[in-house]
Write a structure and sequence with these properties.
Blueprint: E1 2-3, E2 17-18, H1 29-36, H2 49-62, E3 66-70, H3 73-84, E4 90-94, H4 98-101, H5 106-111, E5 114-118, H6 128-134, E6 145-151, H7 161-173, E7 177-182, H8 185-192, H9 197-200, E8 205-209, E9 220-224, H10 226-238, H11 247-259, H12 264-278, E10 285-289, E11 292-296, H13 302-311, E12 314-315, E13 319-320, E14 323-326, H14 333-349
Parallel strand pairs: 2-12, 4-5, 4-6, 6-7, 7-8
Antiparallel strand pairs: 1-13, 3-9, 8-9, 10-11, 11-14
Helix pairs in contact: 1-11, 2-11, 3-10, 6-7, 12-14
Length: 350
């Protein structure tokens, strides 16, 4: 998929509904108050009490020994992969995974860890047999396979607990560590009706993003066993991720954990509301997965539809042929209906 250039977003005062990603959320008044009043210290010295509290809480929620605050999910995933892989080692990963295609090749460029992509199905899944087949036999000609990198959700699609468990079990049987990119793991857990530890227990390290569905302005916490987190701590410093009075940011994460986890169901319901509203429009293919909608219009209408949506103050990721719309805490029922009405009006006029 490639982005279209047929329409440019108008200035922010013209945007009514921004569904490009769940990263565009604004901190709520309560979250801003928590940030401004946070008790802070120098985190490089391990003295920021709010950071320590956030790390401990997420480690406990995931059933892990320790946690480590990072500025971004990309930095967290990079440190996690490199904590498990030495230079020249190989890790297995699904072909559509974020670590592989959307993190600038950092694991290979900065750590000389080699990704081995595994083909996936329409739900972005691969099988335990695919994992076994991808592990390299001991041979001087092959890199050493040391890690399986998983993701949940993937493009909004939930990977079931049993599926993650079977993949991780296979990896461990093959002598591999397992990392789980849980950028939207809270969405997956919410949709599956479980707590995040149901997934996290099967992985050695888990990256938990705070700035997507949970609505914090920045931050990811990597959780895992103490040894892995200690290695990741050194890597974080090497990657320029040591921060000082970062408790002001960690406070947003603590607030989000208290106030924004259960309400993720609202985002899923609003994505379903849009999907249902678009269901009868001619030639429009709509796939809804948790808080994401993948919408494919007739090829000849794509450019005109993008221009129409932008004119109505609606932003999305306007890839061609398939657009992505993401619901989040700043999209209420009225804005979901605005999206439906805009699509409906376009097809009525076409």
């Amino acid at each position: 998929m490639s982005p279209t250039t047929s329409a440019q977003p108008r200035p922010n005062n013209y945007v009514h509904a921004d569904l490009r990603s769940d990263t565009v959320t604004q901190a709520t008044p309560g979250m801003r108050e928590a940030m401004s009043s946070a008790n802070v210290g120098d985190d490089v010295y391990g003295e920021d009490p709010t950071v320590l509290a956030l790390q401990e809480q997420l480690a406990n929620l995931a059933g892990k020994e320790a946690g480590l605050f990072f500025s971004s999910g990309t930095q967290s995933n990079l440190a996690a992969v490199l904590s498990h892989c030495g230079r020249g080692d190989e890790y297995l990963i699904g072909r559509t995974s974020h670590v592989l295609i959307n993190e600038a090749g950092g694991t290979a460029s900065l750590g000389s860890a080699i990704p081995w992509p595994i083909e996936v199905d329409e739900n972005n899944q691969f099988s335990p047999d695919d994992v076994r087949a991808a592990v390299k036999e001991p041979d001087q000609h092959h890199p050493v396979t040391t890690l399986l990198s998983l993701e949940n959700t993937i493009n909004g699609h939930i990977q079931s607990v049993n599926h993650i468990a079977s993949l991780a079990s296979t990896a461990h049987e093959c002598g591999l560590a397992v990392h789980l990119d849980g950028a939207r793991l809270f969405n997956a857990a919410n949709g599956a009706g479980v707590d995040i530890d149901a997934y996290a227990t099967h992985a050695d390290t888990v990256s938990l993003c705070l700035s997507k569905g949970l609505g914090a302005p920045v931050g990811t916490v990597l959780v895992g066993d103490q040894s892995s987190i200690s290695r990741a701590h050194r890597l974080r410093k090497m990657l320029g991720g040591g921060m000082r009075q970062v408790g002001h940011l960690a406070a947003a994460g603590l607030y989000a954990l208290e106030h924004h986890v259960v309400r993720l169901a609202d985002d899923h319901e609003r994505a379903a509301r849009i999907a249902q509203g678009l269901g009868d429009l001619p030639g429009l293919d709509v796939v809804q997965a948790t808080n994401m909608l993948w919408i494919t219009p007739p090829k000849e209408l794509h450019g005109a539809l993008v221009e129409h949506l932008v004119a109505d103050g609606i932003l999305a990721t306007f890839w061609a042929p398939t657009m992505r719309f993401v619901t989040h805490l700043d999209i209420d029922d009225a804005l979901a209906d605005l999206v439906v009405d805009s699509f409906t009006n376009f097809f009525e006029q076409t």
